[in-house]
Amino acid sequence: MTVRGVMIEKCPVAGCWFRLRDGSGVIKVDTKSAGFVVVNLPRGIPMTVAGKAVAEGDEVMIEATGIRY
Question: Of 5, 19, 20, 21, which is the most exposed, with the fewest CB atoms less than 10 Å away?
Answer without folding.
Answer: 21
